[in-house]
Amino acid sequence: SRLATKSPTPKIAFLFLTNSNLTFAPLWDRFFRGHSHLYKIYVHSDPFSAVQNFPPPFESHLIPSKKTERASPSLIAAERRFLAKAILDDPFNLYFALISQHCFPLHSFPFLYRSLLGDNPLRAFTSQPRHRSFIEILADDPNLPERVGSVFLC
What we know:
The protein has 154 residues and is of the alpha/beta class. 32% of the residues lie in helices and 18% in strands. Strand 1, helix 1 (25-32) and strand 2 form a beta-alpha-beta unit. Its main location: membrane.
């Protein structure tokens, strides 16, 4: 029924994978402020880590978590849980950003949203034959090697 809405708004799903507190939570809060209709947040917090309560806007977005270990298949399983939750939760989640607890944004939310969806997000949502990654969007940029990774710093 949500797909039949008259004006769907494409969203970016931010998938925070963490085994500690979110180091830059205040910066992320500022990044997201005022754009709640354009994104969704999902947090996978390793249940065996010493993570304290998450501050707004993260506190109510925890997904069921299992133990994860660096460089192990458990991270793939966590990413699969993220994607399943984000896809089932909101069919308008068009892009997915996997972020660790130590990443922080280098650009504003409007810059990121325009970079991914252009000036007409509804048209991008309904007519794009295949959705591209951030790197593919910038593929013709001669400064691409310097720009890769320039949306979030981890």
